[in-house]
């Protein structure tokens, strides 16, 4: 791998570490403030709102500037969201601002891989960056649980600045303040990311027009890119798979917290460690996929998605920690092995069709629309009094059912368009077309 790849990984690790620790701190902040269950569940979909609403803008923005600069600006927005949460803004609104930073960060983070590396290294690169991201999820969730726990929070609250009254008086507030420094460390790594030499594609914005008019002007280009990816015979399969995976997986982060509370009687700090167990399995699956899979083999992992959905329903029968841990590792492992080659194939097709930033923005739009819809569904279920058991059953059936439909869709493509699919697979096998 080129030197710049490791700088990108470092920046991604610390930014993702802070994102996941902040989620746990925000859940505990809302719990300690007496927020109802449905509002805490709404943290997941609220984070994705700007991924969906600003998808036409963030993709073009990522292609208009060097990716390192885009990532630096995005981390600065996340710091603003943390400060809002600290000083009185409703946690849901403040967390949405952090989501705005993440929405701007993602097209640059993944888009720079296709600028920096040839097609033959994309699966390996995705394996490493997904593995590292998942490691940051594990450590971030555990870190968040520890920061709001009694031992660390007591030490943080004991820190007293002379003259200045920060107004930070609770464990979740101390955790959020500490995470600002982690975002600042990620921003420093962003400044070290090299320019890839890829030509910038200027953002078509008129400074005399307002924000809404400029965003509207970008819509036709975005929808054209979106439709091109959905029409592509490999792009549509990889996009539908990753959309479904992240829709269910994104909400699983909170569902495991709710399930651990119900099935095992855990508090937030204890339950956050179990969420990290799922991420351990995902990291293992991601690394194995990066070593065993090639870009042209990506569609072979589709049946694993069906198995993952059926396993998800099996969580309802578990009430013992020693059974839960290996089960959650297996569940995460299937997800990691599924998503790495599919992500790489999707990035490859998007880079060939429309450019890195725009393709990742299209991916983010679809995947986060799925998280938003399924998250709103879960939040509504809890609002009406349904338990986590029913939510897990619904998610498992959705994943298994739709993955079966995607499998049938791909088989139909192979039968009706064999020459086109083979041509696209030949491109995936060759670096010179990338």
Structural description of this entry:
- This protein is mainly α and 434 residues long.
- Helices cover 80% and strands 0% of the residues.
- The protein has 18 helices and no strands.
- It has helices at residues 3-32, 37-41, 43-47, 49-53, 55-64, 67-86, 91-116, 122-148, 150-158, 171-190, 211-231, 235-263, 268-292, 302-314, 321-353, 356-383, 388-416, 418-428.
- Helix 8 packs across helix 15, helix 14 (302-314) runs antiparallel to helix 17 and helix 15 runs antiparallel to helix 16.
- The protein is globular and about 65 Å long.
Q: Please count the helical segments.
A: 18
User: Helical percent range?
Assistant: over 70%
Instruction: Specify the biggest β-sheet.
Output: none
Overall geometric form: globular
Order of helices and strands: HHHHHHHHHHHHHHHHHH
Overall structural class, as computed from helix and strand content, comes to mainly alpha
The beta-strand count equals 0
Mean pLDDT: 81
Low-pLDDT residue intervals, each spanning 5 or more residues: none
Percent in strands: under 5%
What does the radius of gyration come to? 21 Å
Distance between the termini: 17 Å
List the helices and strands and how they pair.
Elements: H1 3-32, H2 37-41, H3 43-47, H4 49-53, H5 55-64, H6 67-86, H7 91-116, H8 122-148, H9 150-158, H10 171-190, H11 211-231, H12 235-263, H13 268-292, H14 302-314, H15 321-353, H16 356-383, H17 388-416, H18 418-428
